[in-house]
């Protein structure tokens, strides 16, 4: 009971002040029939720090961690080297154990960080403004679709076929309840994304076109062409970035005409963590600010005229607007935003540019080597650090066989698209600055062995 | 021209079949600093009791109900840059929107100035 | 004797006279101001060593290349560490003192949990790694799920929601899906007027119309009004228990039975589960769905506003409709992740996926470590001490501050006060800001909405009696100052890094990003 400071003597003394004989008297409003008089049967009792650590370490050891083996997974979650100072700083108790900055006089640390974060995200995305973060990329993607509906007063969203299938599924789930119509389909195994198909799907009832950039197969879409087509029909372009490192190399979506840019910020600072917590990024044009979801931090002054920061425009949010709020969201991903922001502060625009170029070079080296594996073909004509290869057999089995050989070789399209047999032989392969020549060779050799 | 008041603290000036709507000075004083006003676009059809307009203060978003039915003809564009006009001159330059009335009979139940002042005094 | 004190150094006390209020730097000893990163460095610098790429972009990428790097500065590691360390010191935190935000449950965050979450088998595993390589991670999810089900007495649990409000949405979507499966179109959700704002926001999102249920004078749901409203158009009720006035809803089982009899479902907002964990199981009160804020009851850190985690426990009636993916223990004892590939066969009535991947794993590891540390006995003690601390605050202060429900019986984990009796012009806000000067984080203010000038104090079980006594002493003195009309309180805080901030200006002319280089 090392986390409970009260002693038995103090408990008695406090009960005296309260005027209760026992602690159970304080639970008198709980109906006696439902009140538990003893610890719930069948559950373990309290345990020492050492015992818990051992239990958890044993579970941890049952996983093959990415750093232990050649590793090539991406598909919406990316492994990059995170400078040691990032994790050190986010563990400062003043960040880690603070609450949402509702009392700005004693939360300027979090607030200034959020203001810097919003600026970093906006400049990375090429949008005028950004919010203080959301749960993750997939939920940010849905929020963008919902916001586009509010802005355009239309209810039909066109999702490009290259949008991450988990994002598509999330949007579809939410749309079932709002009555939005969602147009979406699985991608085809082609070198180029289907830009003409997306453009053809836009009509004058379309609220937005959602385009992942780079897309789920690692391909890069001509956003400017889609933006022009969308705007001509009065629709918004929502760009989705699942790998922000890619924006070190390719143009910012906002600069290409995207009205809303959302993304998954996990790849900078946050780490893999088996899928969460991650970091939703959300940027857009300033004219839409009152339709935006999520928390916003703004600059102001204090009573002495000193610059300071506050959460602002909160009348959009659930705790004030209740059933008329722009979203039911009432949290952001503060600590993940901090990790992202610190990593971005270390990199700067220049560092992100270098990092993206290095990632791209490692991906090229990987693609070239895999292309020499018999009966394996690289699909993409363009990619940044992730691309698709087509195997001669179902990639799901190949991925498992590679794992048996201690190589985490990629994400099979069959796992992402179980209902699309034509994609079954596709394998997504991702490289990064962490990928060594030895890793690449190990993957190629293992793949040759599995396919032999 | 006559001015009428609602129990929800809106005022409406009526001149023939055209009218101007705002919130009362009492309402603005209760809301505190107004930060933003969401106004209905010209052409919007409103029914009496609809909430075509929202007045935001720092910690609250308050619906403004239309005292009468009609079609919006104009929004107070000045409020986009200066929402504080609703604080400084709620019953003048801080008006919210104008509309063409569809049923002047709806005004019958509204209060005049004296009745409204008495109503506020009783709150 | 050798040379005596050649340097001339000798300790002196100086004088105790007040110094100048200002300094040249603007910093004041340990009170350090900090510029924005954009003011510290121009773009073009980088604080990370990155190898040069050994080749240029592939030809296909040429037309997509960025014209110039993003205009963001890169700071060296020493500058970065100093920047964020200086910023951190402008934050109040649980590590510094009591953080008695009602309904938010700011309790100590054990550092073992941080250590566990960073074990490479949890922190460095890809969500789409083949399941055979992530058995331990799936085991963590399943073990935590088991605990949550046992502690709540429910049938199933959805682990993927990313925060409390997301979990609430999950629960309401389950209700919606269950009604659809029954072929019924029930459109009304009943929500007590004391509810968290998320409740009506969530229900409205799911397409329900909201009807408010009044509270009785003792601060609980008006059972008669609620049962009178039940009928074939009512989908269900969303109730917070313990409620936001800090009281246990004694009639919860009666309410549940009435709602069920009328064909509806009962959603419980589990934000306050920390008050009853180990003392009563929501499943025994007839609840159909309840989210659990792992960052509240199970102590995962709030992190300055997230990330949260909001698993939802479900009754037998609602479990078939829960989201994908989820974990299931197989006959061979291993744990499998059921996702889209097997969903149609294993979980055909699921309402779908709520987010990418499988939930907040980094929060699961922390929460499981916390639960295992306390065990079944310790968790009950957590609830007992939380309730004891809150009642101690309530009874120590009820003579100083108006406590509207002090006569309604013991409070649960939080004590509610109002602004009644303060001097003319003095408000709850003044007391909150006064607490800042006293070195405490203020309580939750102006919530719940049913009490004018509400002050909701939740001390949590991790405050010592000595710490509570200091807090009570400060709040008592502030209450007296506010009753006496001490003008100094109107301008508090005086000693924080900032005085009161102009929120009106921030909202009228929003400045959301730095534009200091825009003029160039």
Number of strands of chain B: 9
Give me the Rg of chain B, rounded. 13 Å
The total domain count of chain B is 1
The number of helical elements of chain C comes to 14
| Average pLDDT taken over every residue of chain C | 95
Structure, described:
- The complex is a heterotrimer of chains A (about 450), B (about 120) and C (about 525).
- Chain A has helices spanning about 10-20, 50-60, 85-90, 95, 110-125, 135-150, 165-180, 195-200, 225-230, 320, 335-370, 395-405, 415, 435-450; strands at about 130, 155-160, 180-185, 205-210, 235-240, 260-265, 280-285, 295-300, 305-310, 375-380, 385-390, 410, 425-430.
- Chain A is α/β, with parallel strands linked by helices and about 450 residues long.
- Chain A folds into two domains: about 70-80 and about 350-450, Aspartate Aminotransferase, domain 1 (Alpha-Beta Complex), CATH 3.90.1150.10; about 85-345, Type I PLP-dependent aspartate aminotransferase-like (Major domain) (Aspartate Aminotransferase, domain 2), CATH 3.40.640.
- Chain A starts with 7 loop residues before the first helix and ends with a helix.
- Chain B has a single domain (about 1-105), classed as Beta Barrel (OB fold (Dihydrolipoamide Acetyltransferase, E2P)), CATH 2.40.50.
- Chain B is of the alpha+beta class.
- Helix content of chain B is about 20%, strand content about 35%.
- Chain B has helices spanning about 25-30, 80, 85-90, 115-120; strands at about 1-5, 10-15, 20-25, 35-40, 45, 55, 60-65, 70-75, 95-100.
- With about 525 residues, chain C is of the alpha/beta class.
- Chain C folds into two domains: about 115-370, Aspartate Aminotransferase, domain 2, CATH 3.40.640.10; about 380-495, Alpha-Beta Complex (Aspartate Aminotransferase, domain 1).
- Chain C is built from 14 helices and twelve strands.
- Chain C has helices spanning about 35-40, 75-90, 110-115, 120-125, 135-150, 165-180, 200-205, 225-230, 250-260, 340-345, 360-395, 430-435, 465-485, 505-510; strands at about 155-160, 190, 210-215, 235-240, 265-270, 290, 310-315, 325-330, 335-340, 415, 445, 455.
- A seven-stranded mixed sheet of chain C has the order 1-7-6-5-4-2-3, with helices on both faces. Chain C has a three-stranded antiparallel sheet with strand order 10-12-11.
- Chain C is globular, with a radius of gyration of 27 Å.
- The chains are: A alpha/beta (about 450), B alpha+beta (about 120), C alpha/beta (about 525).
- Chains A and C meet through helix 1, helix 2, helix 3, helix 4 and helix 5 of A and helix 2, helix 3, helix 4, helix 5 and helix 6 of C.
């Amino acid at each position: 009971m090392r986390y409970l400071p009260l002693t038995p003597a103090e408990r008695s003394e406090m009960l005296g002040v309260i005027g209760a004989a026992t602690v159970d008297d304080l639970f008198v409003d709980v109906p006696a029939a439902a009140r538990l008089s003893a610890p719930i049967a069948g559950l373990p009792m309290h345990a020492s720090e050492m015992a818990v650590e051992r239990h958890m370490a044993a579970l941890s050891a049952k996983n093959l961690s990415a750093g232990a083996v050649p590793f090539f997974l991406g598909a919406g979650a990316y492994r990059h080297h995170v400078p040691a100072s990032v994790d050190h700083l986010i563990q400062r108790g003043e960040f880690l154990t603070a609450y949402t900055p509702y009392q700005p006089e004693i939360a300027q640390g979090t607030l200034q960080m959020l203001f810097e974060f919003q600026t970093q995200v906006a400049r990375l995305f090429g949008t005028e403004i950004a919010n203080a973060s959301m749960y993750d990329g997939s939920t940010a993607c849905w929020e963008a679709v919902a916001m586009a509906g509010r802005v355009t007063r239309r209810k039909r969203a066109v999702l490009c076929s290259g949008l991450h299938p988990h994002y598509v599924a999330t949007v579809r789930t939410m749309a079932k309840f709002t009555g939005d119509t969602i147009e979406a389909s699985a991608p085809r195994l082609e070198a180029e994304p289907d830009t003409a198909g997306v453009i053809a799907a836009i009509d004058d009832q379309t609220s937005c076109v959602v385009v992942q950039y780079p897309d789920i197969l690692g391909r890069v879409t001509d956003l400017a062409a889609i933006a022009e087509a969308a705007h001509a029909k009065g629709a918004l372009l929502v760009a989705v970035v699942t790998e922000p490192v890619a924006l070190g190399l390719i143009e910012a979506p906002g600069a290409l005409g995207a009205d809303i840019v959302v993304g998954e910020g996990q790849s900078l600072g946050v780490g893999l963590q088996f899928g969460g917590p991650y970091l939703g990024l959300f940027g857009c044009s300033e004219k839409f600010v009152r339709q935006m979801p999520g928390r916003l931090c703004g600059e102001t002054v204090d009573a002495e005229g000193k610059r300071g920061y506050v959460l602002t425009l909160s009348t959009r949010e659930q705790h004030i607007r209740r059933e008329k709020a722009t979203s039911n969201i009432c949290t952001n991903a503060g600590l993940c935003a901090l990790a992202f922001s610190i990593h971005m502060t270390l990199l700067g625009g220049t560092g992100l540019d270098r990092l993206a170029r290095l990632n791209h070079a490692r991906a090229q080296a990987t693609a070239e080597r895999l292309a020499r594996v018999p009966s394996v073909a690289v699909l993409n004509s363009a990619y940044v650090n992730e691309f698709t290869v087509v195997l001669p057999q179902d990639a799901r089995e190949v991925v498992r066989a590679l794992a048996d050989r201690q190589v985490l070789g990629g994400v099979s399209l069959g796992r992402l698209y179980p209902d699309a047999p034509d994609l079954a032989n596709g394998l997504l392969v991702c490289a990064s600055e962490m990928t060594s020549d030895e890793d690449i060779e190990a993957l190629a050799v293992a793949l040759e062995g599995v396919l032999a | 021209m006559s001015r009428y008041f609602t129990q929800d603290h809106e005022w409406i000036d009526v001149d023939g079949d055209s009218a101007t709507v705002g919130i009362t000075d009492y309402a603005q004083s209760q809301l505190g600093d107004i930060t933003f006003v969401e106004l209905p676009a010209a052409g919007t059809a409103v029914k009496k009791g609809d909430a075509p307009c929202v007045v935001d203060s720092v910690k609250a978003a308050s619906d403004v109900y239309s005292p009468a039915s009609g079609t919006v003809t104009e929004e107070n564009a000045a409020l986009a840059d200066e929402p504080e006009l609703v604080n400084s001159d709620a019953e003048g330059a801080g008006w919210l929107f104008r509309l063409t009335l569809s049923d002047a009979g709806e005004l019958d139940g509204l209060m005049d100035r004296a009745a409204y002042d008495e109503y506020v005094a009783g709150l | 004797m050798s040379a005596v004190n050649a340097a001339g150094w000798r300790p002196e006390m100086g004088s105790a006279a007040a110094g100048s209020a200002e300094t040249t730097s603007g910093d004041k000893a340990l009170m350090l101001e900090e510029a924005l990163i954009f003011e510290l460095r121009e773009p073009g610098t980088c604080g990370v060593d990155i190898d040069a790429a050994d080749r240029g972009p592939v030809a296909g990428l040429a037309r997509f290349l960025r014209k110039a790097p993003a205009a963001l500065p890169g700071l060296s590691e020493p500058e970065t560490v100093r920047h964020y360390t200086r910023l951190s010191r402008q934050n109040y935190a649980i590590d510094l003192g009591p953080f008695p935000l009602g309904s938010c449950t700011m309790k100590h965050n054990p550092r073992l949990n941080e250590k566990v979450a960073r074990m490479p088998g949890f922190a460095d595993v890809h969500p789409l790694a083949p399941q055979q390589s992530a058995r331990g991670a799936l085991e963590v999810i399943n073990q935590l799920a088991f605990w949550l089900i046992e502690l709540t007495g429910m049938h199933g649990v959805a682990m993927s929601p990313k925060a409390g409000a997301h979990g609430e949405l999950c629960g309401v979507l389950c209700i919606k899906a269950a009604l659809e499966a029954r072929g019924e179109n029930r459109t009304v959700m009943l929500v007590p007027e004391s509810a968290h704002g998320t409740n009506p926001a969530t229900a409205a999102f799911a397409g329900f119309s909201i009807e408010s249920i009044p509270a009785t004078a003792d601060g609980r749901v008006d059972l008669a009004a609620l049962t009178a409203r039940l009928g074939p158009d009512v989908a269900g009720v969303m109730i917070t228990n313990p409620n936001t006035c800090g009281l246990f809803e004694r009639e919860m089982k009666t309410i549940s039975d009435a709602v069920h009899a009328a064909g509806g479902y009962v959603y419980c907002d589990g934000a306050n589960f920390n008050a009853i964990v180990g003392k009563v199981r929501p499943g025994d009160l007839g609840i159909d769905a309840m989210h659990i804020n792992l960052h509240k009851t199970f102590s995962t850190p709030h992190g300055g506003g997230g990330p949260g985690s909001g698993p939802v426990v479900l009754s037998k009636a609602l479990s078939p409709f829960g989201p994908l993916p989820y974990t299931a223990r197989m006959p061979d004892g291993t744990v499998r992740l059921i996702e889209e590939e097997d969903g149609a066969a294993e979980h055909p009535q699921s309402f779908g996926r709520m987010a990418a991947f499988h939930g907040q794993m980094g929060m699961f590891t922390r929460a499981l470590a916390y639960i295992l540390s306390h065990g079944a006995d310790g968790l009950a003690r957590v609830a007992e001490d939380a309730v004891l601390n809150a009642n101690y605050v309530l009874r120590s202060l009820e003579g100083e501050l108006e406590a509207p429900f002090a006569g309604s019986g013991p409070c649960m984990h939080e004590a509610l006060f109002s602004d009644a009796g303060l001097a003319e012009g003095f408000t709850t806000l003044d007391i909150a800001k006064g607490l800042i000067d006293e070195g405490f984080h203020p309580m939750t203010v102006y919530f719940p909405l049913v009490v004018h000038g509400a002050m909701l104090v939740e001390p949590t079980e991790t405050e010592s009696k000595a710490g509570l006594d200091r807090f009570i002493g400060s709040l008592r003195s502030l209450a007296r100052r506010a009753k006496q009309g001490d003008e100094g309180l109107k301008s508090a805080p005086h000693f924080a890094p900032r005085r009161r901030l102009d929120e009106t200006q921030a909202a009228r002319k929003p400045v959301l990003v730095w534009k200091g280089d825009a003029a160039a």
